[in-house]
Design goal:
- The complex is a heterodimer of chains A (1064) and B (420).
- Chain A is mainly beta and 1064 residues long.
- Helix content of chain A is 13%, strand content 37%.
- Chain A has 16 helices and 66 strands.
- Mean pLDDT of chain A is 79; it is low at 1-10, 109-119, 489-506, 662-668, 678-695, 772-784 and 968-1064.
- In chain B, 21% of the residues lie in helices and 21% in strands.
- In chain B, the strands form three sheets. In chain B, strands 8, 9, 10, 11, 12, 13 and 14 form a seven-stranded antiparallel beta sheet that branches. Chain B has a five-stranded mixed beta sheet with strand order 2-1-5-3-4, with helices on one face. Chain B has a two-stranded antiparallel sheet with strand order 6-7.
- The model of chain B is unreliable at 1-13, 98-157, 287-338 and 349-420 (pLDDT under 50).
- The chains are: A mainly beta (1064), B alpha+beta (420).
- At the A-B interface, strand 50, strand 54, helix 12, helix 15 and helix 16 of A face strand 10, helix 4, helix 7, strand 15 and helix 10 of B.
């Protein structure tokens, strides 16, 4: 029957066409910082930067909005990348010793897809090479490439290898020029005997081309020998007999000097004076952080300036004992000396400087440091070398992301105030010089509306990101730790320590300066943000955290000194027999405190017990907030500062919730189980050993049994959910709605709460001033109207007891109710209050629409029973049509535990389309998914990266950029196009259609009454009227009329009706 | 015996039982004293009076708390009915041998496959009109009748129907006639028991014989039975049985977790098609439809409506064994419409035109107690047949008492729902 209906629906060509105009799945862009970067390159001509990752992805960035992504076939770490300057080509060396050539190419790389785009630029692999192992006894590790050097002429690639040989590849064909190969023996022969001493020179550590004389390269071997090799004559022009193990080499611009850095934390300056073939001593040799043993200087750069002494930049070299664990990079010029102290490992760095041959000096303008967790750019032109804020590659995970929230079409006023608040926050140590990496051109039309992405973090901060375009840019950072007393110094404003220069510049040697914002260590995990809700019209922000704290904040452009009102709400309400064994609640700061411009806390509500907040709702128009934990939920009037309601949702048998997250019982159980496993394992391994001692047969049998048990496949228990399953009282969702709960004629404020065990509580609220007409009608009942009141209206226990994921009230047209203020300020179409409302309750197992005020099921879809997948996230999304300007549909988007997206129309709940989106193993990705209101979404593909995807055919945000190439073929082609983007960490999915990015029109375009074939309009209206009448009732009205087959017939009709609407 | 005139506001309490009687499409509401309701004959006449059906030969039935329709034909079962009213007693009056008198017993009154022999201490056979087992979604098949429905019943007339407790729906093998002999479709019912379903499943490899030869495909198997659980105690499932379908949906290509979720989602009415590991106990079907559990009718288990409702999926499932999805549909559709327990709060009557102290009644109208659609959960509208004060009262049946009952009891009640 189901199949039949699906088929019938599937064959409706008109509906299929509409679906195509509405829905299309694309993964469009990755926001944030690439996970596990492993290589860095810069093209000074095109001003493009490339980052390679351990998963084999290469990402190219230019000006904000210019992005290209490529993914190697194998997920092997990229160890080195090189640009062919100005050509839009890139070479990559992978960990498996293969070399790949990539190109930015024009022409569609894909044939599929209806719209064929002209001149699409995509980033593609065009060639591949693997250095063959040397014939003979040497293993292939000898030809393992250690360094790459591209000659300025761009036609020859030099490869230094582990075995000490240097090989040459012709570009761009990647052909090995065997005749040029320089093996170590040739070099060794010409060495003086006392230096040779029978030992190998070691792998090639560095290859550098002479800056002034093309065709001469400097070859540095691990043992310390540096050779100036003339490629054309094939002989060693000079030898520099270094004694210290070599790490890296760099030329001075003139070519008269080069600098070598060493294993012992020192660097040496060598003069290249023609004449003597052997140089035994460097001009100078320094160990900057000596005299105690130091770590190696991994890379050194020497940049000349017009004004004075050269700038020396090197990573590492820290005193081993005292600061060996620091990740440092030193900038040195004359007396100025700064040791940048990073929180994660330095992968690589480069300077942006003038490369024109005719210029005499390097004149470095910026230093770009790629760290394992972030990108830091230092302005070298401004005294004091301040940091430059990055417009992209923001470290989303500077503190671990704990939740996220998306706000679409942000009002310009709020946007402006946020931007200003963010600007005021930027410390004195940041400059506003223009971004140095500015290649390519973003040709995407400017976003028509502003979008905000809010991320909550473990350290209690909420970060506001500009998510309007391809580049996710930080706007503003809000700290909530200053509301509480924390372990750190109370005088210290934890809000912006990272920006406070006085705190960081300590009078010590080395002169450390903390740089970067990646800070994985949280002072107090209780500060972590769990839920965020923002009212964009009233600028009220609600954040809730791990220790049951719920904070209401208001936006203020001025600095303010005030104290925060604190209220405590006991959610247990004297339920007995429970003790909370988890963490204590945070201690609020009761004195007045200064709060910087931006969102400033006004009210703090603390739940007792201080369990993590699991759901929040904010209704700024009614001045109400609601919050839920694993124990219950509360309703608070933040205007009058009083708690309206506290309701315990605990099941009496649920002891686990009481214990808190650090349950002793649980861990004991677990550890017991683990220790048993260990015992069992050791037995098994004992058995596997060749039998040395005679074992009894019983023991053997036991071991065999144990082994069998071990290999026994996973099994799953089949049991219905019961009320006393653990954590059944967890409040999963809360929602406010102005709807009909009491009866069909009077609507009013309501609060809905859903729990982990399938219970839904609906409260009717009395809010003074709201629906006052009704109060009058009630006559004398308004004496209590000075405070908000809540009355329990309904309790719904879903029979299947699955956790309630979401509750949403639909208006008389079956559309979701608008947000607070939207209707009253004419920002959206007023909801239909004339026809009966309904409530959509999505549980983990099924989606169900109930009529209101009499709660009876109207439509449903039993997802789990049919598909075997469980609902993880749902959202009501407005999809606009690509074909008809004013046509749009409200659709329920549902992400399941298998990582696929199911789209249903509302309220009929008919399945529309299904897309695979996230790998089902990627639990954190599924858990982190947020949807926008217009059909896009974000999920974490790594701790530091959001994947942005689009379910809408119309609303797509993806890179559209041009790059000026000086390649011989098409010298100045400027083409717009999209990147094809294999996902760096996610699954490969069907890729970007060449859609122009068109942000959605206003809040909700006028949705005309749907055409006949639209599922929106179908029989549901009639349903609405009959839904509340039972068969009996109908008959009561129509006594004595057509009684013949009364019962049966009515029954049959009812059946027919419901099956006509129900899907399953 | 306190007779109250028809359509008087009903005051409820411990002492009074609210009675709602139905004859054809008409309803009457009366109240009876719980402790002295009188005898059956008196009651019979009372109903005849209030329904204005003097002289008409009728049968009385009532809906017990499990939603079963049980006969009232003597003082004993009348008193039983009164005492079990919770708080509403629903009476269904049917004409004896009327033209529309299609005999349909709910399927669960069928004699089950498992030996469960009616004790038959009551000689009378109760006839009833079309009892809609909507909630159960069980097909109503023409069986066990003495009247005009005899045609439907192959053999027996005057079969003895035992006390209701013997006729709970129980776990059974179903669809024997439409499945290959090597397969077995099992329906697990937790009705009235507190036994767990009691089995575990695992991944495994299934060997299929195909024209190309023997093929190994991944399958899901029963890995463990819990002693005393439903699966073990009924003997319907056994270790290493391969699971082929869950409520009519093929599990091929589904992961273990998916199958687990499907089973849990359907656990209130779990129908598993298995290929038993032990193929020697297979039911042999040789036309003897009358033998085991009237397998012929069993095929319509998924039917949602009456046997007469042709759009019910039962015919499909009979003709096409594969579309057993109808089972899942039919059953579940109806089942949890009412399955979700909805409690209403009487505090929420601020707009009542007749303000006043509303005494609320126990929530006997919890969905499980009413075989008729979802009336249990839905209070009556303000219909012309009732003074509005009544309807107001009825509108808010039962919250306080319900709410005041511990959730333990709620759960118990819900358990009943599950098994319905």
């Amino acid at each position: 029957m189901m199949k039949f209906r699906f088929r019938r629906q599937g064959t409706d060509p008109q509906r299929e066409k509409i679906k195509q105009e509405l829905f299309a799945f694309n993964k469009t862009v990755e926001h944030g910082f690439p996970h596990q970067p492993s290589a860095l390159a810069f093209d000074p001509k095109l001003q493009l930067m490339a980052i390679g990752t351990k998963s084999g992805a290469i990402k190219i960035y230019g000006a904000p909005g210019v992005e290209f992504t490529g993914l190697h076939r194998d997920t092997t770490a990229v160890t080195q990348i090189l640009f062919l300057p100005g050509q839009g080509r890139l070479l990559s060396l992978l960990d498996d010793n293969t070399i790949h050539l990539w190109e930015l190419v024009t022409g569609p790389s894909r044939e599929a897809g209806g719209a064929k785009k002209e001149g699409v630029v995509s980033f593609q692999e065009v060639n591949e090479y693997c250095l063959p192992g040397r014939p003979g006894i040497e293993s292939c590790s000898a030809t393992r490439v250690t360094v790459l050097l591209l000659l300025k002429s761009c036609d020859l690639l030099c490869l230094g290898t582990e075995g000490g040989g240097v090989y040459f590849l012709e570009l761009p064909r990647l052909w090995l020029q065997e005749s040029r190969t320089l093996l170590q023996d040739q070099v060794t022969q010409s060495l003086p005997d006392d230096y040779r001493c029978g030992k190998s020179l070691g792998p090639v550590e560095s290859l550098q081309e002479h800056p002034q004389q093309p065709g001469k390269i400097l070859i540095g071997y691990s043992r310390g020998l540096v050779v100036l090799w003339d490629l054309s004559t094939r002989h060693a022009e000079q030898m520099f007999l270094g004694k210290q193990q070599l790490e890296s080499l760099v030329w001075e611009r003139s070519g008269n000097l080069f600098v070598s850095s060493h294993n012992d934390g020192g660097y040496s300056v060598w003069a290249v004076a023609s004449g003597n073939t052997y140089n035994h001593q460097p001009v100078s040799s320094t160990i900057p952080y000596g005299p105690f043993p130091c770590k190696a200087i991994n890379k050194i750069l020497w940049r000349t300036t017009q004004t004075g002494s050269p700038v020396l930049l090197y990573s590492g070299g820290m005193p081993r004992a005292s600061y060996g664990d620091r990740h440092c990079l030193t900038i040195q010029q004359d007396k100025e000396h700064v040791t940048l102290d990073f929180t994660s490992r330095v992968i690589d760095f480069f300077t942006v400087h003038s490369v024109e041959q005719e210029k005499e000096f390097d004149e470095p303008s910026a230093l770009v440091v790629l760290l394992e967790e972030e990108l830091v750019v230092i302005d070298l032109q401004t005294p004091g070398w301040p940091t430059l804020p990055t417009p992209y590659l923001a470290p989303l995970h500077s503190s671990a992301i704990t939740c996220s929230c998306h706000i679409s079409s942000v009002p310009p006023k709020l946007w402006e105030r946020l931007v200003n608040a963010g600007k005021a926050q930027q410390g004195r140590h940041q400059t506003h010089r223009s971004w140095p990496i500015c290649g390519g051109k973003n040709v995407a039309p400017p976003a028509k509306q502003q979008e905000l992405l809010l991320t909550g973090h473990e350290d209690g901060t909420v970060r506001f990101w500009d998510a309007s375009g391809v580049a996710l840019t930080p706007l503003y950072k809000l700290g909530t730790a200053n509301v509480f007393h924390t372990d750190c110094d109370p005088g210290d404003d934890p809000h912006d320590t990272s920006n406070d220069p006085d705190m960081q510049q300590e009078e010590e040697w080395p002169p450390f300066r903390k740089v970067g914002c990646f800070d994985p260590y949280s002072d107090d995990p209780r500060l972590g943000i769990q839920k965020i809700s923002l009212c964009k019209y009233s600028n009220k922000l609600l954040v809730a955290g791990t220790a049951g704290q719920v904070i209401v904040l208001g936006l203020n452009d001025e600095r303010s000194d005030h104290s925060v009102d604190v209220s405590v709400v006991d959610l247990l309400q004297d339920r007995e027999g429970f003790t909370w064994k988890g963490h204590d609640r945070l201690e609020p700061r009761l004195k007045t405190a200064p709060f910087p411009p931006g969102f400033q806390p006004q009210v703090l509500v603390q739940c007792l017990p201080p369990a993590s907040v699991t759901a929040v709702a904010l209704h700024a128009e009614w001045n109400l907030i609601s919050f839920g934990t694993s124990h219950g939920f509360g309703l608070f009037d933040y205007h009058r500062r009083n708690a309206v309601l506290a309701r315990c949702t605990l099941h009496p048998n649920d002891s686990l919730a009481m214990e808190g997250p650090l349950s002793r019982v649980k861990s004991l159980k677990k550890s017991l189980r683990q220790s048993f496993r260990r015992i069992r394992k050791s037995r098994v391994s004992g058995k596997k050993r060749p039998i040395a001692t005679p074992t009894s047969k019983v023991q053997e049998a036991n071991a065999a049994l144990a082994e069998q048990d071990e290999v026994a496949p996973i099994q799953r228990r089949i049991e219905p959910r019961s009320a006393d399953d653990s954590l059944s009282g967890v409040v999963r969702c809360l929602c406010f709605a102005d709807t009909f709960l009491r009866d069909g004629t009077h609507h009013g404020p309501t609060l809905w709460a859903g729990t982990n065990s399938g219970s839904v509580y609906a409260y009717a609220l009395e809010v003074p001033g709201v629906g006052s007409g009704r109060v009058c009608e009630r006559g004398g009942a308004s004496e209590s109207s000075t405070s908000v009141e809540a009355l329990l209206g309904k309790e719904i226990q879903l029979m299947h007891r699955a956790p309630v994921v979401s509750i949403c009230v639909l208006d008389g047209r079956g559309k979701p109710l608008p947000d607070p203020y939207e209707a009253s300020q004419d920002l959206s179409i007023a909801p239909d209050m004339t026809n009966a409302h309904s409530v959509l309750i999505a549980s983990e197992e099924q989606l169900k629409v109930f009529s209101l005020p009499k709660v009876s099921a109207k439509t449903k879809f039993k997802l789990t029973a049919h598909e075997g997948c469980r609902v993880r996230k749902v959202a009501l999304v407005l999809f606009s049509s690509t074909a008809q300007e004013d046509y749009s549909e409200h659709t329920l988007v549902c992400l399941t535990n298998l990582g696929d997206m199911h789209l249903f129309n509302v309220p009929a709940l008919r399945p529309q389309v299904r897309y695979d989106c996230i790998r089902k193993e990627d639990i954190s990705g599924i858990a982190s998914c947020v949807f926008t209101k217009n059909g896009q979404g974000f999920y974490l593909i790594s701790p530091s990266e959001y994947e942005r995807f689009s379910l809408s055919a119309k609303v797509v945000t993806e890179p559209l950029c041009t790059v000026q190439l000086d390649r011989s073929l098409d010298t100045t082609f400027a083409s717009d196009g999209t990147t094809t983007q294999p996902q760096a960490n996610g699954t490969h999915k069907n890729q970007a259609e060449g859609q122009t990015s068109e942000p959605p029109s206003s809040l909700s375009s006028p949705i005309l009454d749907s055409p006949l074939d639209s599922p929106l309009s179908c029989a549901d209206l009639t349903l609405d009227s009959t839904g509340e009448l039972t068969v009996e009732d109908v008959r009561d009205f129509l006594t004595t009329v057509d009684e013949a087959e009364n019962n049966l017939k009515n029954m049959k009709e009812e059946e027919g009706r419901s099956t006509g609407i129900l899907i399953n | 015996m306190s007779r109250q005139p028809q359509r008087t506001p009903v005051r409820t309490g411990e002492t009074v039982v609210e009675v709602k009687s139905k004859f054809e499409a008409e309803y009457r509401r009366i109240a009876l004293k719980r402790n002295g309701p009188g005898g059956f004959q008196e009651f019979y006449r009372l109903l005849q009076t209030i329904h204005h059906i003097h002289g008409l030969d009728v049968l009385l039935g009532y809906a017990d708390i499990h939603g079963d329709l049980l006969p009232i034909n003597n003082d004993d079962n009348f008193h039983k009915a009164i005492s079990s009213a919770n708080p509403l007693l629903r009476i269904i009056i049917t004409k004896k041998d009327g033209p529309g008198d299609v005999m349909k017993w709910p399927v669960r009154w069928r004699r089950p496959v498992l030996p469960l022999i009616p004790t038959g201490d009551e000689p009378e056979v109760f006839h009833t009109n079309s009892l809609q087992r909507r909630k159960k979604g069980l097909g109503l098949t023409g069986l066990r009748s003495t009247g005009s429905a005899l045609a439907h019943s192959k053999h027996q007339s005057g079969l003895l129907i035992g006390p209701p407790r013997d006729f709970r729906q129980i776990s059974s093998i179903i669809d024997v006639d439409i499945l290959p002999e090597t397969h077995r479709r099992v329906r697990l019912h937790k009705h009235g028991t507190h036994k767990p379903l009691g089995f575990y499943i695992r991944d495994g490899v299934s060997v299929r014989v195909t024209p190309q030869g023997v093929e190994k495909v991944p399958g899901v198997f029963i890995s463990r039975l819990v002693r005393g659980g439903l699966a073990e105690s009924t003997g319907l499932l056994a270790l290493n049985d391969e699971i082929l379908e869950v409520n009519g949906i093929d599990v091929a290509g589904k992961s273990l977790d998916q199958v687990t979720d499907m089973m849990v989602a359907n656990s209130h009415n779990l129908i598993v098609t298995v290929k038993p590991a032990n193929q020697r106990n297979n039911v042999v079907l040789r036309g003897s439809k009358t033998s085991v559990g009237n397998s012929g009718s069993v095929g319509s288990v998924g039917s949602t409506g009456s046997a007469l409702s042709h759009d019910s999926p039962s015919p499909a499932s009979q003709s096409n064994p594969i579309t057993a999805s109808s089972i899942a549909e039919g059953d579940s559709d109806d089942e949890d419409d009412d399955g979700d327990l909805i409690l209403e709060n009487d505090c929420l009557v601020p707009y009542n035109p007749h303000p006043g102290p509303h005494r609320t009644q126990g929530s006997g109208e919890s969905p499980c107690s009413d075989p008729h659609t979802s009336a249990g959960a839905r209070p009556l509208p303000q219909s012309i047949s009732l003074p509005s004060s009544i309807s107001a009262t009825l509108n808010h049946l039962g919250t306080p008492s319900h709410a005041s009952r511990g959730s333990q009891e709620n759960m118990k009640e819900d358990g009943n729902i599950i098994t319905l």
